[in-house]
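Pair request: fold both.
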Amino acid sequence: MNVLSSFNMDRHQRVVIDTTRQQWLASPSTGVWRIPLEREAAERGQVTSLVRYDPNTHFQAHFHPNGEEIFVIDGVFQDEDGDYPAGTYIRNPPGSYHSPGSNTGCLLYVKLNMFPEEDNVIFRLDTHNASWQPGLENGMSTLPLHGFKGEQTVMMKWQPDTSLPRHRHDGGEEVFILSGEFCDEQGEYEKGTWLRNPAGSTHQPSTRKGCLMLVKTGHLLVAGDF
């Protein structure tokens, strides 16, 4: 892969990546590894990726001019403001600064440089100690994480043999499967799969085994759509 090139940035395109089959790429800091899912350019611009810290690893201090969104999948992530165990959701707003690292090692789902300037609230949530809400159908639960204008970020928990009727995502949908499996008419997706369904797409999702997912909607409209 050419690390200087744009990657999966045409958001009119549906993308499915099984991250368990991807190669980890070295970052500029020794012991920090990444799997890019979408990327505007190397070391700048909009990026969605998995990030892995080896034990006793720290990344150099840096700013996030357009914000950073993190979900801790495994291990304990750290910065000068605290320790964040697996299940923690983090938002660092535009202009924020930190020195991240991990003494134990950790695995993160990270989105960079995608915040509007006015979306400027620092936020931390341990999802293991949060209150879930009933979902749209029996067997579904939802944990809201963030909302700003048309964008919504939630965790969704589906019990086995749960399904939704066919529906449309006017602003698109992005899914990362944390556990279990998820299906629609286009395929079956296991733990570690990242899906991006463009604005205006439709599908009829279901699960046989149950699943836990990070879901973001409403953020994939491109200028000129609709």
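--- second member of the pair ---
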Amino acid sequence: MLYSAFIFGLISSFHCIGMCGPIAIMLPVDRQNEAKKVTQIVTYHLGRLTAYSTIGLIFGLLGRVFFLAGLQQKLSIFIGLAMILVVLIPEKIFSKYNFSKPVYKVISKIKSGLGAHFKNRSYKSLFIIGLLNGFLPCGMVYVALFGAIAMQSAGLGVLYMLLFGIGTVPLMTIVLYVNSILTVSFRNRIQKVIPYVAVVIGVLFILRGLGLGIPYISPSNMSLFVQQTPNCH
């Protein structure tokens, strides 16, 4: 399932340039020295990937708890259904419920931190901008976190979110150079594809949980469980 993280990150980056694109465009990079600009952009992305990996670790540990409790199949099915519902339910329904209210103060501090570091061109500031950017609320990241939980281990949770983040790097880099080609109409057309990709990934997680014995897609029930004694024929 790890490959789905990179693919989803790649497609989600069209959503990212709408939400985080302005942050990337405003990065305090050196516009005169191309080599330095490249290393500065890489530093920014490393900050983002560090943030994604950190939350991947947390949710991977959570998934590990479900795995040890023997709930991995049910969890995989639940996560697949959740992914599908998140993209199918109209956004206006979610807007009626202010889920982010408890973390308003945290978000405010993150935005304040971003503003302060935009005034500095140091590599440390660029890394922190990427780090804080990665912790900002994002619907696509939330969907990816479902996948991190289903990975059933801290290490794989980190890897899942890392691959998701790497998938967003190409387009988030291109927007720094040729943002003019990424018009609003073009982004809107691509964003229409995102729900379909999320549904496909959700279906893959459901199939995985069903244990139908399909190689690489839906392993048999026996391979999904940790057994104290080997099952030999």
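Observation on the second member. Residues 34-68 form the longest helix (35 residues).
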